[in-house]
Design goal:
2 copies of one chain form a homodimer.
Chain A: H1 3-34, H2 44-47, H3 49-67, H4 79-110, H5 119-143, H6 149-185, H7 196-219, H8 230-242, H9 256-260, H10 262-266, H11 270-279
EC number (chains A, B): 7.2.1.3
Subcellular location (chains A, B): Apical cell membrane
Organism (chains A, B): Castor canadensis (American beaver)
Chain lengths: ~280, ~280
């Protein structure tokens, strides 16, 4: 990466982290200052975990998980390590969002409020289920070493598309949730009289949108993509001499060095792989 | 495009058109059957133009405008014609959405309801303004022949990114609008008692999301992109013999044939152009 591109990347990364951090902070201030605070009592305090965990896990941590391959100083780390971090962050996000959903169901049950009637809840539950599915499929297809490369090449564009679609839908769901909550609670003074809580929480909504926009920009710049395995170039030129190594590492129980030869093996699937590459936008 | 890819494309295109059409139909049924109908009287009938025009123009027509370059049977048409159709559809969408915003402001004024207090209105007005800006910039940079190719190459990735981000944000805004409206009007029976209108309009929200997902899939498949100008290949090989022609067409008042030589001229800006291409995902 040229120094110029590197500075641009750093600027956007710092902006994304800042705006993401502010989103989490604003959510905390919202529930702690404007609402009743946090607790696990079947009441409003328990409900309040819902926005806090959803914004922290499903927006901020998921956003970071999406751009983690783009950090240039991780390009010397093994692809397997980076995949593990990507999967780990998404797993943490999944756990947090599941707790956030439990908090709401628990609150509704305790207060005898019906479940799952709003558009927010329909889209939200769908997206949580699909997110867990995406996580499991990603784990089995890309992290575990047993999936054939042809399956990986076929699944990669779908994985990238689903991941970004889910992230975008999560943001839409959060904005619906904010809207819903503000119309519920801002009665006196009413939301339409511009009370501080309304203006503050609208601003939170804008911050979340900007965070999403920054993540989308960072992840769709082709020049900021992790380069194809540098080790594999070495491995491949060794293979050129050894001739047999290049056709290994296609399936079965892979060692660490075999994982590194994936890129070499993929050169044989060039068409498919190129499609996968470009679909990362 | 191979026959296989062509069938896949057709299937997805028909699905997108169907789901988009259903979204518009559901919105019409919502306001005509469940709400009070349409009119321009400062009351609820005037407000109802807001969802109808927003879903028709800002969701459906904008979605079609985004994928219009992907229709294989248009690849023999000139790039200029396709740009005009793309710009024309976006202009129609802009006009419809501006009328939809006027309807709401008019309704609010007539009913003495304050303007611009909700998150939906903040995000919605921002997105309308940015959409008009995107339209104007697109018109001056890409449709009119005067912008230098270096500017076009620089602006293209931003144009594509902004366009898709705006489209996604429009969908989020519509979902907030639906949420807001349902909590307003579904009092007796309440939204949480699963009245037919609530279930019906939640379904509308899901349809709009699915439409967005289909448009995003179609537009981000690299194999469904319009091929680089076929005429330019001819023009370029002619230029190979003429040697001078290849450096023409960079700026100034362009004739139609000069527009066709854009692709040839762009080969000189390969790095930038490639970035632009790939950023279309």
């Amino acid at each position: 990466m040229a120094m110029d591109g590197y500075r641009g990347f750093l600027g956007l990364l710092v902006s994304a982290l800042l705006v993401g951090f502010l989103s989490v902070l604003f959510t905390l201030i919202w529930v702690l200052h404007y609402r009743e605070g946090l607790g696990w009592n079947g009441g409003a305090l328990e409900f309040n975990w819902h926005p806090v965990l959803a914004v922290t896990g499903f927006v901020f941590i998921q956003g970071i998980a999406i751009i983690v391959y783009r950090l240039p100083w991780t390009w010397k780390c093994s692809k397997f390590l980076m995949k593990s971090i990507h999967a780990g962050l998404n797993a943490v996000a999944a756990v947090l969002v599941i707790i956030s959903v439990v908090a709401v169901f628990d609150y509704h049950s305790a207060q005898s409020i019906p479940h799952m009637y709003s558009l927010h809840s329909w889209v939200g539950l769908t997206v949580v289920i699909l997110y867990v599915l995406q996580l499991l499929l990603g784990f089995f297809i890309f992290l575990l070493p047993w999936a054939p490369l042809s399956l990986r090449a076929l699944a990669m564009p779908v994985h990238v598309y689903s991941g970004l679609l889910l992230f975008g839908t999560v943001i839409a769901t959060v904005l619906m949730g904010v809207t819903e909550k503000l119309f519920f609670v801002l009665k006196n003074p009413s939301y339409h009289s511009f009370p501080p809580e309304g203006v503050f929480t609208n601003t939170l909504g804008l911050l979340i949108l900007v965070f999403g926009g920054l993540v989308f920009w960072i992840v769709t710049r082709p020049q900021w993509k992790r380069p194809k395995e540098p080790e594999s170039t070495l491995l491949q030129s060794e293979a050129m001499e050894g001739a047999i190594a290049i056709s290994s590492g296609n399936s079965g129980d892979k060692s660490d060095s075999e994982l590194n030869s994936e890129a070499a093996a993929r050169k044989r699937n060039f068409g498919l792989d190129e499609a996968g590459q470009r679909s990362t936008m």
